[in-house]
Amino acid sequence: MDERTPQLRQKRQELIKDLTRNILDCAEPHIDPATPPEELQKTTTQIEERLQFEANVALSEVVTRFSVKRPKDKIEEAVERSFERFGKNFRAQHMLMFLSVVLLIITGMPLKFPEYGISRFVIVTIFGGLPNSTLIHRVAAVGLITVGAWHLGYIAFSRVGRRDFWLMIPRPRDIIDFFQTVMFFLGRRASGPKFHRFSFIEKFDYWAVYWGMVVMIGSGLILWFKEMFPKALFDIAREAHSDEGLLATLAIIVWHFYNVHFNPDVFPMSWVWWHGKLSEEQMKHHHPLEYAEIIEKEMQALTGETPAESSEDKK
Amino acid sequence: MKCVWGFAIMLLAATAALSQDDRCVSCHGSQRPADQANAQIIDTTVLKSSVHAAVSCTECHAIDPDMPHRGNRTVYCARCHGKEAESFNKSPHVLGRKENIEKLPTCITCHGGHDVLAIKDPNSRTNHRNAVRICIGCHEDQQVTEQALKLPKPAVIKAYENSVHGRALMIEGKANAPACVDCHGSHSFLASDDPESPVYKTHIAATCGRCHHEIAQTYTESVHGQALSQGVMDSPTCTSCHGEHDIRPHADPESRVYKTSVSRTCSDCHASEKVVAKYGLKADRISTFQESFHGAAGALGDTRVANCSSCHGVHDIYPQDDSRSLINAANIDRTCGQCHEGLPQSFTKGAVHTSASVKESGGKFYVRQFYIWFISIIILAFIVYRVLEYKRRIKRVQ
């Protein structure tokens, strides 16, 4: 098998080239003769990449289904393939975080809008008065601070955490992705950009939380331990806490809730936060580059080619 | 034999007492002659048990010498009660006659006729505990208040019944609690805009002070009391904060001076553009309080947080530069310390009543400005992005 693989790969490349030519031939009557050749060349490359990708997918499907190397139960599982997006640790962080944030918002927001009936309803009727709600606010604040520390430890000391943090770092590619997405929305492009594990949307979501955590925890601690600070700093902290709280709430509703609740693809709710898994379909659609990379790696593992980076990853 | 003696004694007594009154009673008593069918019957037992038992009919009633004396029921109370009558003649109850207001009361309306009893008598209509009902009887009457436009609406008067004074007097039976006449004065009942009236603005502290001595004294020395005594008629007196007929105990959540309501009461003047501009007061004292944690918590029903009077005093409000003022630099540590132990001087000496919407507040202002722009831009961008995404989605479905 080892000896045959390079030849097979070459053969596959030739087939793809043939197929591409075939597709272009079929399409010829529809192509404007005035199209510059470099545009055509670009499209040709795109078609080749696409075919390469689909071939990898199909190949992996065949291999996972009929592989002799895998134990039988794993084959069964492999038919309904799923990909772990969030590990247990990360899901636990998310749960503690949203519990804290929801409590913080409903006990905090009424203090920004005390004149509204709903604020009174929440504080007086639901929580039984400000002494209770401020206590809950502080308990939830401790929860949020815990999540912050936990996550910093996670990205420092956990392998998956380190890997995901590395992938989360914004890159120039994200700016390009953003403009391509807008162009796609405006109908100037046939398709949106392909994302890796984290799209620019998810990166924005993630880093916005850093900003919010720093402002909210910092100002919140000043309000909590006001005896240690001058009045002017207290005033600034209170204004920042109140305004940032509003911003965070709006961002969660307009941005995050849309992504995970109101978006027609997932309505009423995406369950990824609970089981942490994405289906193969979802992976192909939302994270094609990551998917391709995973498949590529599996292929290499199956065909015996184990590049240095992937073997390091296995440890 | 005994019967004969008895009859003889009765006859003797009757003859001895045969006077002017008996002549009246002979027609107006319960057994009138047939030819006097129109004569009004007087219940002589009522008369005899009244405070006027010893007063003969003619001392009150002018008698028309011609018999029968039709329709002449005029009563002259003033003959004996000159001082009261003089006072009553100045009252709106008498002056209202010029305006042709019906149902105006006379002496009898309140004190009763033949059944008049001494005020101290618990059964007297004008006894302290009962008098309120007489006043309310007319002042609650829609017909009356519609005719006399200057009169307050019935609900305003009726509020007295639920006030701390009304409940003390009428429900708890405290005899020294004030009834209508204690504040409005008996007989004269001058309107509150009459400078002679005990309820005229400058006299109210003294009127309330008849019972609440120390508080009235403290108030008179306060910035509000001083201003009023110098002729600043906009300065508040007792009723401006506590209400008039509807005065509630300060611990009653319905009270105008309840912990969480007092800022609204202060706002009547301190957030009034007219008052603030006229006297050069700072216009944002109420709005900045409402913006603060104290204000917000109070609005959400928390009674632990500071309200206006926690820091500025209740009746003892002085200008900040007065050494007696609770917010004077010498006292501010103690004032904040009532609730917040261990606040450093850097905190207590910091500016209070700062507003995020004026530059003078410093950092707070710039933080607010930053967030106004930041929130607007970010949320707008989010929404635009979503709209574009949605439009594309619809296109794809089509």
Explain the overall architecture.
The complex is a heterodimer of chains A (315) and B (398). Chain A has helices at residues 4-27, 37-66, 72-79, 88-112, 117-126, 130-157, 159-168, 172-185, 200-224, 231-262, 272-275, 280-286, 288-302, 308-314, and strands at 82-84, 277-279. Chain A is an all-alpha fold and 315 residues long. The longest helix of chain A has 32 residues, at 231-262. With 398 residues, chain B is mainly alpha-helical. Chain B has helices spanning 2-17, 20-28, 44-49, 57-60, 82-89, 92-95, 107-111, 128-139, 142-147, 154-158, 164-170, 180-184, 201-209, 213-221, 223-229, 238-242, 262-270, 273-279, 285-291, 293-299, 308-312, 332-337, 345-348, 363-397. In chain B, 20% of the residues are buried. The model of chain B has no long low-confidence stretch (mean pLDDT 86). Chain A binds chain B through residues 110-112, 114-115, 119-120, 123-124, 129-131, 182, 184-187, 226-236, 238-240, 243-244, 246-247, 250-251, 254-255, 258, 264, and chain B through 290, 293, 295-297, 299-302, 304-305, 340, 342-344, 346-352, 354, 356, 361-364, 367-368, 371, 374-375, 378-379, 382-383, 385-386, 388-389, 391-393, 395.
Number of strands of chain B: 0
Termini of chain B, distance in Å? 129 Å
Helix/strand structural class of chain A: mainly alpha
How big is the Rg of chain A? Answer: 26 Å
Helix % of chain A is over 70%
Q: Structural class given helices, strands, pairing of chain B?
A: mainly alpha
SSE run of chain B: HHHHHHHHHHHHHHHHHHHHHHHH
- Report how far apart the termini of chain A are: 26 Å
Low-confidence stretches of chain A: 308-315
Ranges of chain B where pLDDT stays below 50 over 5 or more residues in a row are none
Short description:
The complex is a heterodimer of chains A (315) and B (398). With 315 residues, chain A is mostly helical.
Which terms summarize this structure?
heterodimer; A: 315 residues; mainly alpha; two-stranded antiparallel sheet; 14 helices; 2 strands; disordered C terminus; B: 398 residues; 24 helices; 49% helix
